[in-house]
């Protein structure tokens, strides 16, 4: 790839002795103009990764580059103010006593302030509101002001730490579409932090899934959702049924206790290999002639679908599967139903599961 906008090479950071690394041997890179999302549960190292990139934390080992320049390495340290990074905080961090345009131009050299403010207002569609105080803006407009302040400095990358997390669902969806549209228009490189998997799937070119300071998988939203590398990724990003099985000998399929599961993607697993299979609920389709038969033990109507639990009797014990049923169907708990498996959202997971770190 061309020179990445930023790059982590084997970067580790530990805050305290006897604690595992908050960030353990991270290596990943982002293309200029791309949106990367760091996704993972609380405490997995998302904010630490942003702080390392911004220069607010020093790595214990490894190298960080920004636009081809090493900013943190064994013998190198460039302080945060000289890195060319923009940050948009969850609370926007606007100065209440300054106007919108003064906020946008804050810190620019005096002769650039007027042009910078006008340009910033235009980039985010706030023309005409420059003379207002931040308190006279809606939440969305305040966020755009914060984004304009970052953009007018032509940053190499803009960092967003959970920027939408204190908003209700509707506003959240609208604001993130807004922000992403502006980032695309300005060809900005951005990193978002979120623990909301739907948000990550919606906005990202690449998602980096983290757990306990370790990268679990890096991929496009489609790769992460359709072909998860680990059971953790499969269940953290969406819902999934995780079953042990053995790779089939003839075709792309896995033999499991509930029968033969067709798979489009096998991660190169060999016939006869012991594997795990991830079956998304939407892979299971009601089919009177389908091979998987069970009884519904729970049904939840969500409007767009019926989310149900199907209890299937295996040779030794029963297994509960999450299934999605078309909302037009009338089903009730206790009813027997048959399903067939579509291969599109099933994936083979090989034995590999990135190891848990041991405290040092
Ligand atoms: N300044 C600090 N001193 C000591 N430990 C810290 C510090 N900051 C973070 N940690 C620890 O490092 C780990 C990673 O924290 P981090 O803030 O990066 O998580 P996160 O993924 O952003 O979580 P959240 O979703 O809750 O914001 C956690 O175990 C946390 O307790
Ligand atoms: Mg955080």
What does this structure look like?
With 360 residues, the chain is α+β, with helices and mostly antiparallel strands. The protein folds into two domains: 6-84 and 155-226, Rossmann fold (3-Layer(aba) Sandwich); 239-328 and 335-349, no CATH class. Helices cover 21% and strands 32% of the residues. The chain is built from eight helices and 20 strands. The chain has helices spanning 46-54, 100-105, 113-123, 139-151, 169-185, 197-203, 221-226, 231-236, and strands at residues 6-13, 23-30, 35-39, 61-66, 69-72, 85-88, 157-161, 190-194, 206-211, 214-219, 241-247, 253-256, 259-262, 274-279, 284-286, 292-301, 306-313, 318-325, 336-341, 346-349. The protein has a six-stranded mixed β-sheet with strand order 6-7-8-3-9-10, with helices on both faces. Strand 16 (292-301) and strand 17 (306-313) form a beta hairpin. Helix 3 (113-123) packs across helix 4. It starts with 5 loop residues before the first strand and ends in an 11-residue tail after the last strand.
Summarize the structure.
The protein has 8 helices and 20 strands. It is α+β, with helices and mostly antiparallel strands and 360 residues long.
Can you lay out the helices and strands and say which pair or pack?
Blueprint lengths: L5 E8 L9 E8 L4 E5 L6 H9 L6 E6 L2 E4 L12 E4 L11 H6 L7 H11 L15 H13 L5 E5 L7 H17 L4 E5 L2 H7 L2 E6 L2 E6 L1 H6 L4 H6 L4 E7 L5 E4 L2 E4 L11 E6 L4 E3 L5 E10 L4 E8 L4 E8 L10 E6 L4 E4 L11
Parallel strand pairs: 3-8, 3-9, 6-7, 7-8
Antiparallel strand pairs: 1-2, 1-4, 4-5, 9-10, 11-12, 11-14, 12-13, 14-20, 15-19, 16-17, 16-19, 17-18
Bound molecules: adenosine-5'-triphosphate (ATP) and magnesium ion.
The site of magnesium ion (MG) has 2 residues, from helix 1.
């Amino acid at each position: 790839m061309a020179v990445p906008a930023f790059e982590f090479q084997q970067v580790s950071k530990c805050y305290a002795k006897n604690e595992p690394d908050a960030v353990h041997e991270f290596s990943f890179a982002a293309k200029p103009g791309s949106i990367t999302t760091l996704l993972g549960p609380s405490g997995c190292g998302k904010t630490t990764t942003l702080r390392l990139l911004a220069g607010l934390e020093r790595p214990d080992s490894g190298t960080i580059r920004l636009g081809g320049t090493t900013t943190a390495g064994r013998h190198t340290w460039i302080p945060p103010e000289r890195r060319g990074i923009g940050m948009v905080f969850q609370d926007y961090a606007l100065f209440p006593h300054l106007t919108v345009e003064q906020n946008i131009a804050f810190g620019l050299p005096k002769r650039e302030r007027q042009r910078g403010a006008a340009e910033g207002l235009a980039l985010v569609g706030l023309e005409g509101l420059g003379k207002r105080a931040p308190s006279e803006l809606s939440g969305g407009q305040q966020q755009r002001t914060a984004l304009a302040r970052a953009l007018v400095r032509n940053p190499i990358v803009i960092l967003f730490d959970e920027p939408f997390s204190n908003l209700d669902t509707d506003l959240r969806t609208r604001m993130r579409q807004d922000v992403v549209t502006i980032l695309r228009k300005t060809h900005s490189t951005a990193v978002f932090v979120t623990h909301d998997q739907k948000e990550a799937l919606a906005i990202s070119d690449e998602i980096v899934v983290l757990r306990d300071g370790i990268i679990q998988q890096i991929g496009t939203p489609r790769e992460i959702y359709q072909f998860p590398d680990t059971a953790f990724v499969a269940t953290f990003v969406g819902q999934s049924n995780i079953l042990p099985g053995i790779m089939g000998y003839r075709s792309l399929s896995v033999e499991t206790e509930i029968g033969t599961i067709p798979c489009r993607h096998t991660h190169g697993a060999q016939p006869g290999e012991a594997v795990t299979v991830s079956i998304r609920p939407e892979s299971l389709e009601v089919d009177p002639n389908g091979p998987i038969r069970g009884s519904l033990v729970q049904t939840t109507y969500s409007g767009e679908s019926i989310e149900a639990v199907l209890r299937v009797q295996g040779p030794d014990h029963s297994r509960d599967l999450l299934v999605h049923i078309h909302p037009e169907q009338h089903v009730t708990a206790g009813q027997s139903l048959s399903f067939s498996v579509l291969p599109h959202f099933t994936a083979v997971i090989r034995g590999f599961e990135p190891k848990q770190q041991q405290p040092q």
